[in-house]
Each structure stands twice: as structure tokens, then as C-alpha cells.
Design goal:
Blueprint lengths: L3 E12 L2 E12 L3 E5 L6 H9 L6 E6 L11 E4 L13 H6 L14 H13 L15 H14 L4 E5 L7 H14 L4 E5 L12 E6 L1 E7 L5 H8 L5 E4 L10 E4 L1
Parallel strand pairs: 3-7, 3-8, 5-6, 6-7
Antiparallel strand pairs: 1-2, 1-4, 8-9, 10-11
Helix pairs in contact: 3-4
């Protein structure tokens, strides 16, 4: 039996007098690759913030690695949807990735050889070695997202949380990022917030459909058009895509 990593028991979050999450019960186990789907405003990002310890529950209980949220920052890697920064600020890809080592350091402690080695290994994992000395302001959207993934990996996390990691990248770069996540799932528990249902059938192990409360959770193979239409409250058209590493006649699903 795999160990639980995230346990939410009737989790509720109220912000500004409005229920954002209501009676949400969900367990994520070691080795899971979970996709969280849902409409804008459905509480997906709020759920990640609760897991990170950045948002306090209004009701219910949450544990991460058996402890309250915020107690194990060194075991969690977080990839935000986008990074807001001054594109003229002189900071390199390697320097950004090194920031992922901060939870491993004491206050004001300098980076050591292990920090540099882990940063370089993370940069190599995401395929950015040739750009490691480039300023982040010169990167494309996809290269920047891979930099953020490398920053999360540099901290040697057990759990990876990703909030819409392909929202601002082109279709070809989306494929490379999801191929990367396919490889990372071998060593990490992954929770992926996404609108891109095309990744669900071919990549993730389980799907949670979230719209304030948990509408549906189960294996990705069981997710169908009816589930998506119930979640998004409008008709969903299934579109077939052929990805590069699939067989020539092995389409995968997405919605449009």
C-alpha cells in the first residue's frame, strides 16, 4: 500500500465571504500523477495554495506528508503558472534555478558545491544546459516554464505541484513539457492543474474534476465527454490529436 502524500478531509476555504472550496475530500498517494481539471474560479489554484501552506482552511483538515501544510517546504517543488519579473533584470537561468535550493539552506548561508551541482543537474534534466548562463529576460515562454520546473527540481522535492505550466506556451513546446513530466513521474508524485484535457488520457494516472467541490475523481481512462460537460457546464467536443511519440494511428483526446 502506497503512503498518502496529501490528505484533504472535507476541506473548505472561504474568501471574501464566498466559498471557494467546499467539503473537498481527496487523497494523493506516493507515485500518483494527478490532473486537477475545472473551470476558472473553480478553486484549483486555491487548493495548491492550501497544500503549500499559503492559504488557511476555513473548515476540514489537511495534511501533507502527515503534517500540517507548510511544515515540509523542502519536500515540495512548486511551478507557478507564470513568473512576473523585470525582463531587464540581470539574472541568469542558473541563478533562478539555484533559488530552488533555498529551502535547503540556513538563513544567509552561501550556496555550496552541492547546490551548484543540483542546479546544473536540474537544468540538464529540463534540456536548458546551453542556456544556463542566459538572462531569463531573453527566454521564450516555453524556456521560462522549463526554467521554473528546473528551479522546483533543484530542491530535490518528493512532491511537484504545477499550476497551468503550459498556459502561455505554443503547442510544440506544450508537448516537450508534458514529455518531461512523463519522465519526472518516475521519481516524483505530481499534482498538475490544467485546462488541457488532451494530456489526461495519455499521461496522468488519475483525474480530479474540481468546481468548488469535487465533482468527480478517478482513473484517467474513465474520464469521458459526459464528465467534462458536467464539469464545465457546456457542450464539450472531443478532438483527436496525434502526438509525436504515439504510434501513427494512436490518437489521444482533448477538448475544444
Amino acid at each position: 500500500m502506497k503512503s498518502p502524500v496529501i490528505c484533504c478531509d472535507r476541506l473548505g476555504v472561504t474568501l471574501g465571504g464566498m466559498k471557494v472550496l467546499d467539503a473537498l475530500s481527496l487523497t494523493v498517494y506516493e507515485g500518483d500523477y494527478l490532473a486537477v481539471l475545472g473551470p476558472n474560479g473553480g478553486g484549483k489554484t486555491t487548493l495548491l495554495r492550501v497544500i503549500l501552506g499559503l492559504e488557511k482552511p476555513s473548515s476540514g483538515n489537511v495534511t501533507i506528508f502527515g503534517e500540517p501544510p507548510g511544515m515540509a517546504p523542502g519536500r515540495i517543488g512548486y511551478v507557478p503558472q507564470r513568473l512576473f519579473f523585470d525582463r531587464d533584470f540581470p539574472i541568469s537561468v542558473r541563478e533562478v534555478v539555484m533559488m530552488g535550493r533555498l529551502p535547503k539552506r540556513r538563513l544567509m548561508q552561501r550556496y555550496g558545491r552541492l547546490d551548484r551541482e543540483m542546479a546544473d543537474e536540474a537544468i540538464e534534466t529540463v534540456g536548458l544546459t546551453r542556456l544556463k548562463n542566459s538572462r531569463i529576460g531573453t527566454l521564450s515562454g516555453g524556456e521560462l516554464q522549463r526554467t521554473l520546473i528546473a528551479r522546483a527540481l533543484a530542491g530535490e522535492p518528493d512532491l511537484l505541484l504545477l499550476d497551468e505550466p503550459t498556459a502561455s506556451v505554443d503547442p510544440d513546446m506544450k508537448t516537450t513539457i508534458y514529455d518531461l513530466l512523463d519522465r519526472l513521474r518516475e521519481r516524483h508524485t505530481i499534482v498538475l492543474v490544467t485546462h488541457d484535457t488532451g494530456t489526461v488520457g495519455r499521461s496522468v494516472s488519475r483525474v480530479a474534476c474540481l468546481n468548488c467541490t469535487l465533482d468527480w475523481v478517478g482513473p484517467s481512462s474513465s474520464l469521458g465527454t459526459a464528465s467534462l460537460e458536467s464539469l464545465y457546464h457546456h457542450p464539450v467536443e472531443v478532438v483527436l490529436h496525434n502526438h509525436g511519440h504515439d504510434g501513427p494511428n494512436e490518437p489521444t483526446d482533448s477538448y475544444a
